[in-house]
Every structure is written in C-alpha cells, then in structure tokens.
Amino acid sequence: MNADKSNLPKTVGVWNRLESLRIINSKNIFKYMNGAGELYLGYRFRHLEVFDYTSAEQGNILVELYFMESPDDAFGLLSLDWGGEPVSFDGAPAATCKKSFTSPTRALYGGGLSRMWSDNMYARIMAERETPASKKAVITIGKAIAGNTQHPPEPLLVKILPLEIGGVWNLRMDRLSFFRSHLVLNSIYYLSHENILDLDLSAEAVIAPYEYIPGSGNPKRSQFLLVKYENPERAHQALNRFHDAYLPGYKKEITAETAADSPSLFKLEDGWIGYKLIGKHIAIVFESPDPESARIILQKNESNLLKKGGGS
Amino acid sequence: MKDKMPVLTRRDFIRGTVGVTLGASVFGLQWPKAEARAAATSLVTVVRDKNAMDSAKNIDITVLEKMLTETLTKVTGQKKTKDAWLSLVKPNDVIGLVPTDHLNPTHDEVVEVVKNSLMDAGIPEDRIRDAQGPRNAKKCDTLIAIPGLKAHWLTGVGTVLKNYIMYSGSPSSYHKSNSAKLGEIWNLPFVKGKTKLVLVDSLYPLCDKGPQPDPRYQWNYNGLIAGTDPVAVETVCLKIITEKRKAIRGEPWPLSPPPICVEAADRVYGLGTSRMEQIQIQHYGWEDELLL
Q: Which one, A10, A69, B8, B103, has the greatest CB density within 10 A?
C-alpha cells in the first residue's frame, strides 16, 4: 500500500503532504521509535507507512499507518485506550464503546491526535499543534484513510464477555483491551515482569474489569482475563505455569475441564482469585470481593464461551 | 516450583516483598535492608512559572533563564549563578549535557539555556558537549542529566534513571524484571560519580506510558525539577506523574508495569534515596496543580 492507494490527499487546508514516504518494518522499527516498537511487535505487525504534512504557520501533521496481519490486531491497538471523542467516518459508525460492541468505535480523537481502526490498519494522525483547523485536517485525513476500506467486526473473543452478570456486575467496556503479548498485558494490568501465562503471537486475550456499584460506598471491581491458546495442551501448560508463579504454596487444582466442574478459587492479599481451564481457553478472575462473585463471573463467561462454540 | 527462582508478581507489590523476590531472582544477592543505609536528606527543587510555556507550547526563554537561575542557586545554596555552577563543576571540565531525544524529548530551549548559563559562568563553549550516547560520555569529566519528565510503557517511569540507558550499549537488556537494574548503568566506570546535576525538563510532561506520546496525557506543568541525587529527583518526578494520573481518572491509576528501578537504584546501587521521608522538596513559583 502507498499514498495513492490509501487515498491520502496531497493538500488538506494549509497542510501539504511531502512526497517522501517512510516505510518501517519489523527490522527497523526500533530505529524509528526506540522501545515503543515492542508494542507493535506484540501484535502481528507487517509494516508501517509514515507520511508528513507540513504547514509553515500551523505546524506539522504526522500520519502513521500500521498495517497488521488481521483486523483483530488493529482493533487490539485501538483497544488499549478508549479515551477521547468518538469520530464518525463515512460508512463507519461512531458509537461509543460504552453502549455495545455491536457498533464498535472505529476512531477516537483528543488533543490533536486521532487513533483509528480500519480493516487491518491501525492509524495515528497527530497534529503538532491542536487548533480548530488542525482538528478539521486530522479528521479529513482520517476520512480519506477510512474510505473504501472494510469495517470488520471486533474479535470474536471480545464478544464472549457478557455485558452484565447477575444483575450486579457490569462490564467496563471502556477498559476492555485485546492483546497477545505479556508486555502489553503488563501495560494494562500488571501481573509479572515474566511471561507467566506463556503468551505469544499465536494467543489471543481479552481483559476487562467487571464493576459493581453498591447503593453506597465505593465501586467494587473484579478483573477478568480470558486467553485463547492454539490448543488445549498449550492452555493446560500455561495455566500450570501461571499457578506455579502466581500461587506458589497453593494446592494446584487444574482438573476442571467441563462446565459442571467448579473453578479453582483462592483467597489472596487483594481479594479472591479464580481460574478455570476451558478447552483451549483459560479464564481468570482477579481481585473479587468474595468467592461467589469470582465463581459467577467465571461461570457466566464460560457459559457464553460454550454457547458460541469456543470451548473446544 | 520450590527449586526454581521466585518470579516477581503483582502479589509482591501488595505484600511488600518486592525486594526479597528481586534479590533472589534478579540480583542474586540479598536486598539490602532499609535500615542499612545511613539516614540522609536529599534536596529536590521544583521551580515553576506559569509563563514559561504557553498553551501553543511556545517557550519564553527569558522566563526559562530566570527559572534556571533560581534552580541553581537553590540547589547549591549559592547566591550567584556563576558560583552555583562552579560549586558543581570545575572550570576545566569537559561537561556533557545529556538530554533525552525520544518520547517527550527534552526541549532544545532547555538545553540551550543550560549551555548559555554555563558559558556565562566562564566555561568555554568547546568544553560543553552533547553527551547522549556512550562515545560522548567517555570524553566528559562531568555530566548534567537533562531528561524530559515522562512515564514509560516498559519501565513505568522513564525520566532520570532511564536517561542513561544508551550508555549500557545494550538497552534491550533492561526490559522485563531487568529494568530493576537500570541503576547499574550509573555505576559503569565511565559514568560513575560524573553526574553533578540532574535537571528535569518538566515544562510539558507525559503522564501515561506511551509508547508514543499522546497529547491527552501531556500538560503544562511549566517546571524545572532538580537536585544532585538522581534517585530523589526521580522519586519526586514519580510522585508528580502518579498524582496527575489520579487527577485525570478521579481514582488511583497506578503506573503499569510498576517502576521497580527506582527503589532498586536506592537499595541495591546506592545512587540516592527513594524514600520520601528522606527527601526535602522545596518548591518556588507557580503553585497551581503542584501535585506534591
């Protein structure tokens, strides 16, 4: 893909696109952005195209187009931060993620930066200086990028998570993230500096908190994590490693493989943790206020997973 | 698992066992006890001016010069800028300025103001160098660290200690739990003892970890944070970032991953103090959203 194919305009307002195009691949991504490259390699990164728009009076606009292996990877990059103002591009709905994932957010804007997910592309369009004119230009460039591209649905794994459980627990979709790498997991919810869940590019994972707001008092939160591995053996192995690293001294109970079996539950310093092996999936709930909450969150997610044929 | 090395996890931070686990898994030695270090106080100054940078990110050089003068005199206790510099460096030193060049880089204006101030103090221009990178540092007698204030997605905080990561020659060796070892770089033979001043460009900090700058998490703090103890300065920077994150979300929003390098720089490498009770913070000027 190049500038012509991505329909990038040559001129937007007072900004002119430079002819030069920089193409970054997995070998030189660290030269381009130092350690930040780890983030994109933590998804299935193909290459990056960088364009510059310049204006003598209004500062520059940087356009970065990250081409990923699949739309899931591009979605994952956007899902790392749902903050900002949802933006509507032609043909793409701008629903906020607080409502439903059936009309997913495609682009967000804030402070001069637009981040967007369009097919297998994740894009960052950033104005050096935020002004009404630069915002208009950023949105215009975003529309050009989104034009003629597909709008695939969000990853299947994301749809497993029920929005509400037991009339009490509500999924915080604005904090839901899709990822594959433990470095990315740690930037969302720190578990360990080591890769104790055996995550790699063949895995898919989603994490989000469930929140319960009682009539009075502070909200209670349980962090839910669902990981899909290549096969049941990998999942079993990963859960073993997780237990050894995270729960040393606790009796291992990785026997539950049918819906009738109970999850393994343990009382820790920050609340209850529960996990269950479900075929090639691992479901873990952290920081639950009580064992019943941990159990119901796991059970409801497992039930959804099995309904959608994901248990095997 | 009993025979295997312990793994640092979230639970260590909750239980307060980070030191024990890191000592056994990363450092191969006992984590020195807090009591072993002689109690001392490190001074960190925070000088701010509402007019240092405007909302369009234009820097007022005159204001910045005044802020630097105030910083130098307060850090050293000297009355004049020249005396302040000469209490930190020798007139014949080759002085290396070490700005950060990526992810919220140090503003050129800050580096320029420091350079001009050194020249006004009688240091010849040809003895003042850019010392980012190991080749340049080896030729210097003295280093002035001038990082930009920022969080970092791999190490939690990425301001003072991480500013010398290129001196290691192998920056990727300081990922994962090895980020706890960032302090060892400050003890390399060509680095140790050379840093006479840490001056953090906190005009426009970045409080979320990136990995690329997001303007929604940057704000006009309009400050210079300084001291001679790099760990104390980093600790104050960490406090400001943490408080800003909390203010943005209206609830605690801990840095993730946690910045394990700061406490290790204190307890393992003896570079300074990370204990707030041992840090004397003096702030001057603009007080809005001080975050301390």
A: B8
Q: Which of B9, B103, B210 sits opposite A246 (nearest CB)?
A: B9
Question: What is the architecture, at CATH level 2, of domain A156-307?
Answer: 3-Layer(aba) Sandwich (3.40)
Tokens in use for A173?
């979709």
A235-286 pLDDT, tens digit each: 999 999 999 999 998 988 776 455 567 899 999 999 999 999 999 999 999 9
The Cα of B46 is separated from the nearest Cα of chain A by a number of Å equal to 26
Q: Delimit the domains of chain A by residue range.
A: 11-146, 156-307
Most B CBs within 10 Å: which of A78, A190, A251, A272, as the mutation test of the B interface?
A190
The interface predicted TM-score (ipTM) is 0.87
Taking CA–CA distances from B208, the nearest residue in chain A reads: A187
Question: Is the Cβ of B73 closer than 8 Å to some Cβ of chain A?
Answer: no
Asked if A187 reaches chain B (Cβ–Cβ under 8 Å), the answer is yes
pTM of the model: 0.91
Going from the N-terminus, what domains does chain B have, and what CATH number goes with each? 1-31 (no CATH), 38-285 (3.40.50)
Q: What percent of chain A is modeled with pLDDT above 70?
A: 90
B94 closest CA partner among B120, B134, B126: B126
Question: What would the DSSP string read from start to end of chain A?
Answer: --TTTTT--SEETTEEE-S--EEEETTTHHHHHGGGHHHHHTS-EEEEEEEEEE-TTT--EEEEEEEESSHHHHHHHHTT---SEE--BTTB----TTT-TTS---EEEETTEEEEEETTEEEEEEESS--HHHHHHHHHHHHHHHTT---PPPPHHHHHS-SEETTTEEE-GGG-EEES-HHHHHHHS--BSS-TT---TT-EEEEEEEEE--SSSPPEEEEEEEEE-SSHHHHHHHHHHHHHHHSTTSPP-TT--STTSPPEEEEETTEEEEEEEETTEEEEEEEESSHHHHHHHHHHHHHHHHHTT---
